[in-house]
Amino acid sequence: MKRTVPVESASALIDERIKELGDWRGKTLAKVREIIHAADPEILEEWKWVKPTAPGTPVFSHGGIVCTGETYKNVVKMTFAKGAALQDPSGLFNSSLDGNVRRAIDIHEGDKVDEAALKDLIRAAVALNLKGKNKPKPRRTSPP
After folding, report:
1. Which domains does the chain have, with CATH numbers?
2. Contact 57/46 with Cβ under 8 angstroms?
3. Exposure check for the chain: N or C terminus, fewer CB within 10 A?
4. Spans of the chain below 70 pLDDT
5. Are 124 and 87 in contact (CB under 8 A)?
6. Cα(20)–Cα(134) distance, rounded to whole angstroms?
């Protein structure tokens, strides 16, 4: 069964994940998290996709999922839910490039993150999420 952890607990779980990693991946996830919040202070932290076989995934949302903060043995991966629809003039996306919807940034040990470009990408993802939310719903009219 998939579940989402309440927002209050999600931040604590992300803190815990960073601490338990205790290596470059934890530092990288902490840095990425800092950049995400600097780009958009209204970002919500969530913890999703908890299953018996998986501990869950840090998710950053505003008007919908912006990106995840996954950690693997050799990479910290930021998967942007609607990445294929985003302009990436700095070429940050380097993974999942063939997908129809998502795009990802794989950050390896020693990689330098272009903070300004990442902030721009995060802001663009939020704007895309909010674009559909601001349209008024058509009013129903009764048939003549």
Report:
1. 3-130 (3.90.1150.200)
2. no
3. C
4. 1-8, 54, 133-144
5. yes
6. 40
Please give the structure tokens belonging to residue 56. 């869950």
What the block records as the tokens of 8 is 């209050």
pLDDT score at 81 = 95
End-to-end CA distance of the chain: 47
Is the separation of the CB atoms in 76 and 107 below 8 Å? yes
- What digits encode the pLDDT tens for the residues 50-83? 777 767 899 999 999 999 999 999 999 999 999 9
Q: Are 103 and 96 in contact (CB under 8 A)?
A: yes
Q: Check residue 134 and give its pLDDT.
A: 61
State how far the Cα of 101 lies from the Cα of 85, in Å rounded to an integer: 7
Structure tokens that stand for 78 in this block: 């930021």
